[in-house]
UniProtKB/TrEMBL annotation:
<keyword id="KW-0378">Hydrolase</keyword>
<keyword id="KW-0326">Glycosidase</keyword>
<dbReference type="InterPro" id="IPR018120">
    <property type="entry name" value="Glyco_hydro_1_AS"/>
</dbReference>
<dbReference type="GO" id="GO:0008706">
    <property type="term" value="F:6-phospho-beta-glucosidase activity"/>
</dbReference>
<comment type="similarity">
    <text>Belongs to the glycosyl hydrolase 1 family.</text>
</comment>
<protein>
    <submittedName>
        <fullName>6-phospho-beta-glucosidase BglB</fullName>
        <ecNumber>3.2.1.86</ecNumber>
    </submittedName>
</protein>
<feature type="active site" description="Nucleophile">
    <location>
        <position position="360"/>
    </location>
</feature>
<dbReference type="InterPro" id="IPR017853">
    <property type="entry name" value="GH"/>
</dbReference>
<dbReference type="InterPro" id="IPR033132">
    <property type="entry name" value="GH_1_N_CS"/>
</dbReference>
<dbReference type="Pfam" id="PF00232">
    <property type="entry name" value="Glyco_hydro_1"/>
</dbReference>
<dbReference type="GO" id="GO:0005829">
    <property type="term" value="C:cytosol"/>
</dbReference>
<dbReference type="GO" id="GO:0016052">
    <property type="term" value="P:carbohydrate catabolic process"/>
</dbReference>
<dbReference type="InterPro" id="IPR001360">
    <property type="entry name" value="Glyco_hydro_1"/>
</dbReference>
């Protein structure tokens, strides 16, 4: 096979909190992301202590989306993954009525995509939630948020049921284990007991969203979204193999619950051995059991290794792992492992027997404009080319793959560090870490490369 299926969805992925800006306009409330203007690794602040940050304007997609969507169309996108900012719809999370200005904004955005026959692929909660729910309820640690999320989801499903047929619930839901404030609205020093209790509430909310989608948008599809944190054993020592199994189970747990509808035995053992006792209300497990997602989506940037020797571990960007001596690293220290994508696709397809969707993959790098005004990002082209070749191999292996949306098709604000210099896009945005810049858009070399990949359904990829 030299090309991807005719119905393959090609595009890119963005997040409201990293592109929109206009953080306080048209009735929008403050989100947890807005409270971390320097990235998720910055110290948490109170509302009164909040200082301006680069996310406040981001790349001004809120106002410039027609221009950006036209550029996506020029590349040939037939799909755009984006997120709705919960705080544009319910500014405080517990508001009696939704914010009409926020709802109308996404109406305009979806209508713009429809002009180009571009499928909107919408994430309900992408690394943000109303900060008022943290202040007043303690975040997802409070099961009242299940009801509030359900009301938000019902509102957007009813509003956009004729415009959006493809949905995701929580972005990289397993990230809560590494960044609890970003994932579930808990402080970074939250205990495992507190984090897993919040995760339980989120898993119940996920199940309710799945059932609501099936009811309100019967011709729609809704999936989950995992951070694909594939770990290899560092050596063939059985202890390292078991260490890798444990590391992989930490994130596969979420997929198991969202797909198979129950808490797996390995997780029940972990809870027992670590004295974690979840407060599971009557009906929770039945709700989860009745709501298997339609497909599995995931991000994949890098693989890692696991070792039984704690001295081997290396501090990484949010997620720690053991360095792999057989792989090169990106400028940000992430291991580059295209074949790991094929391994992961086969692994997930074998485990769940559901369609898969690669919803994030890309290379963050420092791009330079040369003397002729060009951006020759051959390193990005090579990274994406090699990963897409392996995705194509996985399809040949028998994996059912729905589509590929590269992360950050246009430069955006990095979530973890709030940098602009960590660029992923095919489109350069003239904005910099200090906040300066004209916001002018410029096509990179990779823009034309991806355009050709889509046009040829992958035939132009280099082996």
């Amino acid at each position: 096979m030299t090309q991807f299926p005719d119905n393959f969805l090609w595009g890119g992925a963005i997040a409201a909190n990293q592109v929109e800006g206009s953080y306080n306009l048209d009735g929008k409330g403050l989100s947890t992301s807005d409270m971390l203007p320097s990235g998720i690794l910055s110290p948490h602040q109170t509302r009164d202590q909040r200082t301006p940050g680069i996310k406040d304007l981001a790349i001004d997609f809120y106002n410039r989306y027609p221009e950006d969507i036209a550029l996506f169309d020029e590349m040939g996108f037939n799909c755009l993954r984006l997120s709705i900012a919960w705080t544009r719809i319910f500014p405080n999370g517990d508001d009696a009525q939704p914010n009409e200005a926020g709802l109308a904004y996404y109406d305009r955005l979806f209508d713009e995509l429809a002009k180009y026959n571009m499928t909107p692929f919408v994430t309900l909660s992408h690394y943000e939630m109303p900060y008022a729910l943290v202040e007043n309820y303690g975040g997802w640690g409070n099961r009242k948020l299940i009801e509030m999320f359900e009301r938000y989801v019902t509102t957007v499903f009813e509003r956009y049921k004729d415009k959006v047929k493809l949905w995701l619930t929580f972005n990289e839901i397993n990230m809560s284990l590494h960044a609890p404030f970003t994932g579930v609205g808990l402080q970074e020093d939250a205990t495992e007991q507190e984090i897993y209790q919040a995760i339980h509430h989120q898993l119940v909310a996920n199940a309710k969203a799945v059932k609501l989608c099936q009811k309100i948008i019967p011709d729609g599809k809704i999936g989950n979204m995992l951070l694909g944190a594939l770990n290899y054993p560092y050596t063939c020592n059985p202890d390292d193999v078991i260490a890798a199994m444990h590391e992989n189970n930490k994130w596969l747990f979420f997929g198991d619950v969202q797909t198979r509808g129950q808490y797996p035995g390995y997780m029940l053992r972990y809870f027992r051995e670590n004295h974690i006792e979840l407060d599971i209300h009557e009906g929770d497990l039945e709700t989860i059991a009745a709501a298997s997602v339609d497909f599995i989506s995931f991000s994949y940037y890098a693989s890692g290794c696991a070792s039984a020797d704690p001295k081997q571990k290396e501090v990484g960007n949010i997620v720690d792992s053991v360095p792999n001596p057989y792989l090169e690293k990106s400028q940000w220290g992430w291991l580059i492992d295209p074949k790991g994508l094929r391994i992961l696709l086969n692994f997930l397809h074998d485990r769940y027997q559901k369609p898969l969707f690669i919803v994030e993959n890309g290379l963050g790098a420092r791009d330079e404009i040369d003397a002729n005004g060009n951006i020759d990002d051959d390193y990005r082209i090579k990274y994406l080319n090699d990963h897409l070749v392996q995705a194509r191999e996985a399809i040949e292996d028998g994996v059912e793959l729905m589509g590929f949306t590269s992360w950050g098709p246009i430069d955006l604000v990095a979530n973890s560090t709030a940098e602009m210099s960590k660029r992923y896009g095919f489109i350069y945005v003239d904005r910099h870490d200090d906040g300066n810049g004209t916001l002018e858009r410029k096509r990179k070399k990779s823009f034309y490369w991806y355009q050709e990949v889509i046009k040829t359904q992958g035939k132009s990829l280099s082996e």
